[in-house]
Amino acid sequence: MAETEEKVFYVITHAGEDPERASLPFTIANAALVMDMQATLFLHGNGVWLAKKGYAEHVKAMGFDPLKKLLDDFFALGGKMYVCVPCLKGRDIDESDLIEGAETTAAAKITQEMLTAQVHLVY
Question: Containing domain of residue 85, as a range?
Answer without folding.
Answer: 7-122
